[in-house]
TrEMBL record:
Gene3D superfamilies: 2.60.40.650, Oxidoreductase, molybdopterin-binding domain (3.90.420.10). One of its GO terms (biological process) is sulfur compound metabolic process. Pfam families: Mo-co_dimer, Oxidored_molyb. Residues 384-505 form the Moybdenum cofactor oxidoreductase dimerisation domain. It comes from Viridothelium virens (Speckled blister lichen). This is Sulfite oxidase. It comes from the Eukaryota. Its cofactor is Mo-molybdopterin.
Length: 559
């Protein structure tokens, strides 16, 4: 007899290949299995695309010296042409990783769609994917974990996330929604328009004129609201935002000293806002794609935030001009808000009445409640994420790591709170969150209003075997973190702010028997790692075994 099941049947039944699992529709008299769709055959209407015109003329560099910048917001007609080109053809799927295996590669995900969309629109965007990757290799550290090659999303490895309180520029995480424009500083200018009294534009020299604008220097932690998303993905698949749900670990956070000026002062220099202006729409120069539409990267921040001098226009990062990948020549830094509002490659600020309708603001970076999913979500069901809640993470040891210790496991990590709150206390537990130890103040880095605190701690752990180490933070408002990922899970896969849990195998060498056993491994040359390698020696002599039963009651008794 031959087996008739598909070879991966067992994995499918066990939910290990979730994307291949049929849906069960139990709403009819007989249950119907809905098989996963196959990606449709690709099509491309070459003739219709050619008829639209010469893409090298249609989609040109808007301003000389601004490589990779195509202006879309001013030209609705041009947007329509790009949309038509994108709908006259189809594209292959991105790899499934939320309900399947994550590739063993670095870059982890290639961003197939995004590369092809750029190539399809062509013109100035033709070389953007390749150009941007070159820039990554030039500006970032050789040990970066490239989660998504294009648009580039990368974080430092855990070992380096908190190695320094101030993150060196090459190690600062990067989160892009498109390419990396290359703008010459002397050709750059910023325009302010919309509901301002006197619309005008500024060169970088204008903004750097200290007689006009007071310099600001701030130490700021920037956190992407996708930080630690992998914990939500590992639990359940979700939508995330459009850029293939970058499977961030704990490294989408970094701290830098920025130099610049307050956006409020620049608005003042334009004669202030007109009546009704409540939001500032911020424009980034690269091209973003959503639903076959092209656009520039747009978000908005409330005037109240700007008025408090908490929105900075920055040109310097850790004593250097902004790296190109971080927004050169000028970016926004919004203190205490999610990274998404800190627009890079800023070229325009427009005063408007309401939060922008641009999709990054209105359809992404939303925090849904748990009854909201793919089949009932509306953008208005989500809270637009601005300030991040209090959070923390363990950077050492790692999930599933075996730790040999003398009764205390040495742990390292970070803690952060948004909105100008800061970590007051960091606590760790070695028993899944039953008993907690506070990290002494001396083991936490200095407090600042807008930054994280890094920490180290020797966590008492008596037991042998698998333990769950948990970390949580209390901020200065005494907010703390939900205890489980499930409690914070949401369809958008944002704001993974639950207490950080890792499972670690504890080998406690302060116990005589463990110490002796470790010596035995050494004497016999029996490999210690991996944990599952069988011991190559007896763990008890027969004499000891028999002696035990002589001294103790037998296993079973007769009456
Ligand atoms: N123009 C532009 N600005 C942007 C983005 C972008 O894709 N384009 N990404 C935002 C997001 S989501 C984050 S988390 C931060 C990341 O900043 P970094 O790449 O300098 O670390 O930039 C924000 N500013
Ligand atoms: Mo982000």
């Amino acid at each position: 007899m031959e087996t008739v099941n598909r070879p991966d049947e067992w994995k499918i039944e066990q939910g290990l290949s979730g994307a291949k699992l049929p849906f069960l529709d139990q709403t009819c008299r007989d249950t119907v299995a809905i098989a996963p769709a196959k990606w449709p055959k690709l099509f491309k209407d070459e003739a219709a695309i050619a008829a639209i015109g010469d893409r090298n003329k249609l989609f040109v560099q808007e301003i000389e010296g601004w490589k990779g910048y195509v202006e879309w917001e001013k030209y609705p007609e041009k947007k329509k042409l790009a949309h038509r080109i994108l709908t006259l053809q189809s594209f292959p799927p991105n790899p499934e990783f939320q309900m399947g295996a994550i590739p063993d590669t670095n870059p982890v995900l290639p961003g197939t769609h995004w590369k092809m969309w750029h190539h399809a629109v062509g013109g100035e965007l033709t070389n953007v994917p390749e150009d941007s990757w070159d820039m990554v290799l030039r500006e970032k550290h050789a040990e970066m974990l490239h989660l998504l090659q294009f648009p580039y999303n990368g974080e430092p490895p855990k070992r380096l996330v908190t190695a320094k309180v101030i993150t060196p520029n090459p190690l600062h995480f990067v989160r892009n929604h498109g390419g990396i424009p290359r703008i010459e500083k002397d050709k750059w200018s910023l325009s302010l328009d919309g509901l301002v009294a006197n619309p005008r534009s500024f060169t970088l020299d204008d903004l750097m004129d200290e007689a006009q604008f007071l310099r600001m220097e701030k130490l700021v932690t920037m956190q992407c609201s996708g930080t630690r998303r992998i914990e939500q993905i590992s639990l359940y698949a979700g939508q995330g935002d459009e850029v293939p749900q970058a499977p961030w670990a704990e490294g989408a956070i970094g701290t830098a000293k920025y130099v610049g000026i307050s956006l409020k002062k620049v608005i003042k220099a334009c004669g202030g806002l007109l009546n009704g202006a409540k939001h500032l729409e911020l424009y980034g120069a690269e091209t973003y794609f959503k639903d076959n539409q092209v656009m520039n990267y747009l978000v908005s921040v409330p005037w109240s935030k700007v008025k408090a001098n908490e929105v900075i226009l920055a040109w310097e990062m850790n004593g250097e001009p902004l790296p190109k990948i971080h927004g050169y020549p000028l970016r926004v830094v919004v203190l205490g808000y999610i990274g998404a509002r800190s627009v890079k490659w800023l070229y325009r600020v427009k005063a408007i009445e309401h939060p922008t309708l641009a999709p990054v603001q209105s359809k992404e970076y939303l925090y849904f409640n748990q009854q909201i999913g793919k089949h009932n979500q509306r953008p208005t069901d989500g809270i637009q994420i601005q300030e991040m809640p209090v959070s923390s993470a363990i950077m050492s040891p790692w999930q599933r790591q075996v730790v040999i210790h003398n009764g205390k496991i040495h742990c390292k990590g970070w803690a952060y709170s948004g909105g100008g709150r800061w970590p007051e206390r960091v606590e760790l537990s070695a028993d899944g969150g039953f008993s907690w130890y506070a990290v002494p103040n001396a083991s936490l880095s200095t407090k600042h209003k807008w930054t994280w605190r890094t920490w180290e701690f020797d966590l008492p752990c008596d037991v042998e075997g698998w333990v769950e180490i948990v970390c949580r933070c209390w901020d200065n408002s005494l907010n703390t973190q939900p205890l489980t990922v499930r409690a914070a899970w949401n369809w958008g896969l944002h704001v993974t702010s639950s207490a950080h849990r890792i499972q670690v195998y504890s080998m406690n060498k302060s116990r005589a028997r463990t110490r002796q056993r470790l010596e035995k491994f050494e004497q016999t040359g029996s490999p210690l790692a991996p944990l599952t390698w069988p011991e190559e020696f007896q763990t008890q002599s027969w004499e000891e075994y028999e002696q035990f039963w002589e001294e103790n009651d037998p296993r079973d008794v007769d009456d």
